Amino acid sequence: MELSKLSRSCARDPQSHWVIVGTFPSPQGLAVDAFGRFLVTDYVLGAVHIFKLGPTWEPQVLPSVLGLEGPCWVGPGPEGGLAVSEEFGDVRLFGSACQPLGSLGTLTGHSFGRPAGVCCDSEGNIIVADEQRHQVILFPWARSPICLLSEGLKQPLGVACVPQDQLVVADAGDNCIKVYQYLEELD
Q: What is the pLDDT of residues 43-83, one digit of tens each?
């Protein structure tokens, strides 16, 4: 099932406050990248669907990333790419044209417990929450992975970067949103 087939069932609020661009068998992760593209993981189909909304909110379908194993979370990657965490697996990286670039585990030798939320910071580093190992890991392009956080985390699921070099973590273990200052500590 492709997004182009799904988006034909586009529904719109008569007052133009919202639009449904399609339905998915199992949407999990959602992100918007720097180009305004919507990134939606579909667990059942093993895909990341990518689309934009046109000026009248009509969906403009772009190529999907297929062949993933249990994609859960997605985030923008460096230089217009994307990063996708696969349940009980690894984090796969794709370039701006959705071309496979490899996985963080293979590229760095890092072994994940259960990768969850992913994001990319202003320096182009990828940050991953590992739900099973109760930690957040930074993957710099030119160095080995660095454990940013482990103390005080019970079940880190979501991560997001804030422009002031802060990291926001959604911790489902204690139902908290936690904010950390992190880039200063790496220098």
A: 999 999 999 988 888 888 888 999 999 999 999 998 899 99
C-alpha separations of 41 from 7, 31, 78, 83, 99 in Å: 15, 9, 18, 11, 16
Degrees (nearest 5) of the Cα angle 61, 116, 152? Answer: 145
100-122 tens-digit pLDDT: 999 999 999 999 999 999 999 98
8-state DSSP, 81: -
Q: Does 164 have pLDDT greater than 60? A: yes
d(CA 86, CA 149): 21
Contacts 24+ apart (CB under 8 A), 106-110: 108/139, 108/144, 108/145, 110/137, 110/139, 110/145
In the prediction, which pLDDT does 21 show? 76
Are 129 and 149 a contacting pair, CB within 8 Å? no
In sequence order, what are the residues at sequence separation of 6 or more whose Cβ sits closer than 8 angstroms to the Cβ of residue 6? Answer: 21, 22, 23, 24, 49
**Six token digits for residue 52:** 């934009």
- The predicted model scores a pTM of 0.87
